[in-house]
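JOB MANIFEST
job_type = single_chain_structure
chain_count = 1
residues = 345
[input]
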Amino acid sequence: MKALLLSEYKKLDVVEFDEPTVGDHDLLISVKACGICGSDIHGYDGSTGRRQPPLVMGHEAAGIVAKVGKSVTGFREGDRVTFDSTVSCGHCFYCRRGEINLCDNRMVLGVSCDEYRRHGAFAEYVSVPQHICYHLPASIPYNHAAMIEAVSVAVHAAGRAPVSLGDTAVVVGSGMIGLLAIQAIRLAGCSQVIAVDLDANRLEVAKKLGADVGIVASEGNVEDKVRELTGGRGADVVLEVVGATPTVNTAIACAKKGGSIVLVGNLAPNVEFPLQAVVTRELSVYGSCASSGEYPACIDLMSRGAIRVEDMITATASLEEGVDWFARLYSGEPGAMKVIIDPTR
């Protein structure tokens, strides 16, 4: 099969690659769409240590079942499917509790680190266990279905927040996950959603997708503007979807006393943390990792149009065109957000 291989850092090649083996409980998926994630871009240069070459990256995907293992039930050849990026074991303490994102034996498709290597979906085929697969309705096109993984991250984060009907939420960061989080936290019950970003153009998209207000972070004090919009108190809930010291500090500053912050962004391994502000204002801080069984809900929300993704798709490209798109995204292509790779093009 053809695959887009990270041969070495900052070097991608379209190569002939061995078709994946199909275990008794696995599905072989003919990949129709796979999104380039921000984590793939950060792994492209080796900065995360989680994309060690040689590796076929890609974990946001959908396609058609091409082959089923002999013990598979509930799926057959020709089914339209998507699948979780997290390959959970299904047997450990956390999996038995339904907390699959915390699986002791967790692997992620398209990741190669010191502990494991699991080739992903920037290829004509990928093999995945049936227990992480989900049927895909005909109403969701494959390029939209490749966004379900990202949608699940936002929906999981919104579920981590203790929202009461009528609350105000601030979402710090209006990249793709931020735009999805805006929609998810609105669906969770927030009546006012405030988006914060450095890019005014992204904030316009944020307002189109449900944010009531967009605050350009470089134009004055974000905290003061949030307080103006919340009767001087601050936001009930803040979602931070960048993962860097300045944005974490902004998130904490925007929360009301007794408010909650959900940390979704994972850009930096360590950040400076305003401990006294959290303690003396009795803030609750929640971490949010990937997703944990939200795929069916996300598929339903997308099929009903409650969460929209079409405005975030910048381009659809072949494996060969993916080489150039990786370089462009890595260099910070203006206005680019989500590029979908279609291995059948």
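[summary]
The longest helix spans residues 148-160.
The mean pLDDT is 96.
exit_status = 0
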